[in-house]
């Protein structure tokens, strides 16, 4: 799992129980998945199609630093399937897992667009090949 983004839990991220609000965490995960998919598919018109069961394992509190990890599960014709784990940066305790997030690349009319990708491409390598 590659952990790309860190977030510092602040008072505005908390629910009435003084723990991380699940909706805020899901917003961050959706954004991270979208950014990852846009870079991999090389298509800025990429949207979330599906998110599987979400497993809240533990929580975070004010002042915690969390990190969001994304890995590729597979590539479809116009999609990329990802999995996600969020963990506490300092303790490495898992906060949430999601087994499947499907992101789909769209064309200018909003229809799915075949991408021809079959494996992860690192931007550095992509730039070297040009």
Structure in a nutshell:
With 130 residues, the protein is an alpha+beta fold. The chain is 20% helix and 38% strand.
Please explain how this structure is put together:
20% of the residues lie in helices and 38% in strands. The chain has 130 residues and is of the alpha+beta class. Strands 1, 2, 3, 4, 5 and 6 form a six-stranded antiparallel β-sheet that branches.
- Provide the CATH superfamily: Hotdog Thioesterase
- The low-confidence parts are none
Largest sheet: 6 strands, antiparallel
Report the total helices.
2
Number of E-state strands: 6
Radius of gyration: 16 Å
Give the count of structural domains. 1
Shape: elongated
Cα(first) to Cα(last) distance is: 28 Å
Structural class, please? Answer: alpha+beta
Topology readout:
Blueprint: E1 2-8, H1 22-41, E2 46-51, E3 54-56, E4 65-75, E5 79-88, E6 94-105, H2 123-128
Antiparallel strand pairs: 1-4, 2-6, 3-6, 4-5, 5-6
List keywords for this structure.
Thiol Ester Dehydrase, Chain A, alpha+beta, 6-stranded antiparallel β-sheet, about 130 residues, 6 strands
């Amino acid at each position: 799992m590659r952990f790309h983004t860190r977030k510092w839990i602040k008072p505005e991220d908390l629910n009435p129980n003084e723990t991380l609000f699940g909706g805020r965490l899901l917003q961050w995960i959706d954004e991270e998945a979208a950014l990852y998919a846009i870079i991999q598919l090389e298509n800025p018109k990429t949207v979330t199609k599906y998110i599987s069961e979400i497993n809240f394992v533990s929580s975070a509190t004010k002042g915690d630093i969390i990190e969001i990890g994304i890995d590729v599960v597979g590539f479809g014709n116009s999609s990329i399937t990802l999995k996600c784990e969020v963990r506490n940066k300092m303790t490495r305790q898992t906060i949430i897992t999601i087994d499947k997030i499907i992101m789909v690349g769209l064309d200018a009319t909003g229809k799915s667009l075949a991408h021809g990708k079959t494996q992860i491409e690192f931007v550095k390598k992509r730039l070297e090949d040009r």
